[in-house]
Amino acid sequence: MRHLLDIMDFSVVELQELIDCAMDIIAQPKKYAETCHGKKLATLFFEPSTRTRLSFEAAMYELGGNVLGFSDGSNSSAAKGESVSDTIEVVSCYADIIAMRHPKEGAPLVATRRTGVPIINAGDGGHCHPTQTLADLLTIHRELGRLDHLTIGLCGDLKFGRTVHSLIAAMSRYEGVRFVLISPEELRVPGYVINEIMEPAGVPYVEVRSLEEAMPELDVLYMTRIQRERFTNQEEYMRLKDSYVLTPEKMKTAKQEMRVLHPLPRVNEISVAVDDDPRAAYFRQALNGKYMRMALILKLLEVTV
Amino acid sequence: MIIGDIVNGIVIDHIKVGQGEEIYHALELDKLDAMVIVLHNATSAAMGHKDVIKFDKIIDLDLDKLSYIAPGVTVSVIKGGEVVVSEELELPERLVNVVQCRNPRCITSVEQELAHEFRLANREKRVYRCIYCESEA
Ligand SMILES: [Zn+2]
Fold first, then answer.
1. Chain B contact probe: residue of A9, A101, A104, A196 with most B CBs at under 10 A
2. A44, A137, B87, B91: least CB-packed within 10 angstroms?
């Protein structure tokens, strides 16, 4: 039995199998409509995340399965002081697979020790959110037709953004990938991402301050939000906040085949005027998340179609 | 310099000068019901100078803790005046309840019964990461 706690739990081959499965689901959804008939997915959201939970639930319904769970830890047994292990052990009696989101990092790992069903990490604090990375990978694959030989720009908060670190780890395994890390000084990629992920993988990267300068060479631009509270210096924030906002003006110098991704929700780091640009892939990316969650559920339940 | 030779006991050798005291306290040798010798600044052919700890009792040493704080030391078990086991300690792959995770968002911060467990992420740089949250030890 397998779990998905961290995107690196899956090999490149396994990720490709998931992408192939998702592509087949997209091509022939009817073939999959009853594949999880009689199976139950528990969505245990110890902290709310409506978007991610709905994506999981829609995925399970489209596979013909059922869904149970809770959407906010404050109403659940966890709020009464029950441990993660106990909650999981009980829920494992009712469900065939569990997707859990928890504010504490490592909670899904604890869950795997007390369950006989597959656990999917749907986000644990600032640590991992592997199904977001699955959505990112399918989006790059669908939009650009490949996952190798790409120049990937990551822009915004590269220090605290867990989706950024997971995407770097996942993409570092493909040939010919290089990263352009675009952030203010205060929000640079942490040293361990460089020392423990990119350098051992031999992946070239550059760190730059200006989005405009980086734009023309990018195949993918992964935007993230810069949160005001991350800045110790508010003057610095005021000075920089607009420089990391994507506008139609900045899009002018980008390649025609370049694609803009964003894990959503967006606040103001991408101007709504960019939404109509065919290169804006972030809403399609959200839909891709559902297809990859469907493929993941099938894989972990070992359903053969 | 000759030290009272150990007949049945343990010798921790090749300790960096100055670290003998730290090891003595970390292993709680002050609570040991035995003769303990902490030798400072002994001359060593290999190291120039070193610290050495000897005690005349065979106990179950916390080797993970010892190898974490002082990798490279040698632990020898002596029985009947003979060295029966001698091992140079390497950094352990896993540390269980040797160091505490300090990340307030880590699951170990709320679930008290969980062991604090770290894995060796980079041997050269001696980086350990929490198995739950990946914070550095
Ligand atoms: Zn931790």
1. A104
2. B87
- CA distances A285 to A146, A215, A278, A288, Å, are 15, 20, 13, 5
**Predicted local distance difference test score (pLDDT) of residue A75:** 66
Mutate to test the interface with A, among B102, B107, B132 (most CBs of A within 10 A): B107
pLDDT in tens, A212-239: 999 999 999 999 988 777 777 788 788 8
Q: Report d(CA B11, CA B89) in Å as an integer.
A: 13
Q: Which domains, and CATH codes, for chain B?
A: 9-88 (3.30.70.140), 94-130 (no CATH)
**CATH match of A130-286 with 2.40.10.10:** no
Residues of chain B contacting residue A107, judged by C-beta atoms under 8 Å apart: 107, 132
Do A186 and A237 touch, CB atoms closer than 8 A?
A: no
Task: Report the CATH number of the A7-128+288-300 domain.
Answer: 3.40.50.1370
Q: Do A110 and B111 touch (CB under 8 A)?
A: yes
CB of B137 within 8 Å of a chain A CB? The answer is: no
Q: Tell me the two tokens of residue A118.
A: 């597959």
**Which residue among B107, B127, B136 places its CB closest to the CB of A106?**
B107
Question: Model ipTM?
Answer: 0.90
pTM of the model as a whole: 0.90
